[in-house]
């Protein structure tokens, strides 16, 4: 019996962003087709620990992701993703921080590809923490960017992110800003990746036509987006049950009657049957195990002896 143990660097080397986006897109079509068995994740210590299992029936494979989340620590998310298949004695245990950043970028890439305007080429990224680099890489993969503006409460973090991204920028004009409202006003795409508890901007700060991604809030007490935006936009979510349990902005907007459940479109459904989007679109994800499964499946195929 062999256990392949993969570090963050090995995960990165095995799965380029473009392939991660394709794998996550395919997994969400499979989710919409009812091929996954996925209980709600177990949340311990009010979001301090998350345990996330999922089973894919057609491949008879399973993952369990276990992470610790602590915003006072760098990186904020650490843990493992364990992969097993019923017909195989080998398994994979891989670094969850890199898989999380990759799969959260990948789902945003798939959603942005579906919802952003064809020529969208300027991104404002709010939040320059552990998720931020892959948020940029994913959007740049599906909409080659001309301009990037990074906003963070901590200006040095925003500057450090631009340093980290230097090899990926290849001609993209990149800057940091402390002015969130002015930065979103000029963006075709806004990506939010913060631990904020109140909305990052108001609806009237946004252009008439814009696509907004929001990955940060994963507890009912957290919010990045205002109700007015959710009322105004076509809203796509990763999974209805998950956002109704965990997304502060969706719960707040339902509570103020700004949106109804019927307004929310699941990503899997939107992939199979693309909606006619309004001028403003929103993609909200709290993150589900299906995304981690999609990356773990690629890792298993690449690292186990008779990979499928
Ligand atoms: N949806 C998902 O699947 C998913 C996956 C991973 C992480 N997350 C969540 O995304 C968020 C970001 O994750 P991370 O690992 O990058 O966290 P992090 O702590 O490394 O970074 C968060 C950054 O947001 C900045 N920030 C907080 N409030 C802000 C505000 N009002 N304006 C501007 N900047 C602000 C902080 O200064 C920090 O640099 C967290 O809430 C995390 O739990 C979601």
Task: Considering the chains and any ligands shown, give keywords for the structure.
alpha/beta, Rossmann fold, 38% helix, 308 residues, binds nicotinamide-adenine-dinucleotide, eight-stranded parallel sheet, single chain, ornithine cyclodeaminase, domain 1, seven-stranded mixed sheet
Shape: globular
Computed CA radius of gyration, to the nearest angstrom? 18 Å
Main sheet: which strands, in order across?
10-9-8-11-12-15-13-14
Give, in order, the helices and strands. Answer: EHHEEEEEEHEHEHEHEEHEHHEHEH
Fourth-level CATH superfamily of the largest domain: NAD(P)-binding Rossmann-like Domain
CATH topology of the largest domain, anyone? Rossmann fold
- Low-confidence parts: none
* Class inferred from helices and paired strands: alpha/beta
Structure overview:
The protein has helices spanning about 10-15, 15-30, 95-115, 130-140, 155-170, 180-185, 225-230, 240-245, 250-255, 265-270, 290-305; strands spanning about 5, 35, 40-45, 50-55, 60-70, 75-85, 90-95, 120-125, 145-150, 175, 190, 210-215, 235, 265, 280-285. The protein folds into two domains: about 5-100 and about 290-305, ornithine cyclodeaminase, domain 1; about 115-285, Rossmann fold. The two termini are about 20 Å apart. The relative contact order is 0.18. The mean pLDDT is about 95. It is built from eleven helices and 15 strands. The protein has about 300 residues and is an alpha/beta fold. The strands form two sheets. Strands 10-9-8-11-12-15-13-14 form an eight-stranded parallel β-sheet. Strands 1, 2, 3, 4, 5, 6 and 7 form a seven-stranded mixed β-sheet that branches. Strand 9, helix 5 and strand 10 (about 175) form a beta-alpha-beta unit.
């Amino acid at each position: 019996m062999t256990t392949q143990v993969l570090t963050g660097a090995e995960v990165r080397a095995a799965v380029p962003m473009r392939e991660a986006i394709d794998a996550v897109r395919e997994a969400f079509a499979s989710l919409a087709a009812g091929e996954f068995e996925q209980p709600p994740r177990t949340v311990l210590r009010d979001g301090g620990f998350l345990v996330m299992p999922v089973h894919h029936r057609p491949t008879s494979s399973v993952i369990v992701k276990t992470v610790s989340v602590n915003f006072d620590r760098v990186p904020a998310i650490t843990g493992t993703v364990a992969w097993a298949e019923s017909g195989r004695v080998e398994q994979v245990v891989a670094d969850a921080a890199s898989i999380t950043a990759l799969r959260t970028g990948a789902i945003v890439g798939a959603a942005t590809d579906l919802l952003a305007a064809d020529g969208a080429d300027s991104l404002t990224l709010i939040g320059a923490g552990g998720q931020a680099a892959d948020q940029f890489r994913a959007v740049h993969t599906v909409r080659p960017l001309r301009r990037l503006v990074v906003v963070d409460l901590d200006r040095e973090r925003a500057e450090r992110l631009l340093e980290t991204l230097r090899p990926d920028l290849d001609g993209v004009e990149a800057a940091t800003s402390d002015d969130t409202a002015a930065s979103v006003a000029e963006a075709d795409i806004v990506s939010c990746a913060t631990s904020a508890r109140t909305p990052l901007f108001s609806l009237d700060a946004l252009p008439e036509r814009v696509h907004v991604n929001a990955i940060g809030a994963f507890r009912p007490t957290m919010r990045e987006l205002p109700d007015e935006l959710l009322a105004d936009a076509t809203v796509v979510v990763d999974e209805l049950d998950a956002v109704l349990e965990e997304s502060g902005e969706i719960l707040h907007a339902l509570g103020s009657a700004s949106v109804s459940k019927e307004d929310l479109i699941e990503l899997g459904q939107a992939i199979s049957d693309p909606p006619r989007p309004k001028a403003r679109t929103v993609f909200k994800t709290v993150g589900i195990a299906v995304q981690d499964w999609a990356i773990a499946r690629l890792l298993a195929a690449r690292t186990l002896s008779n990979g499928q």
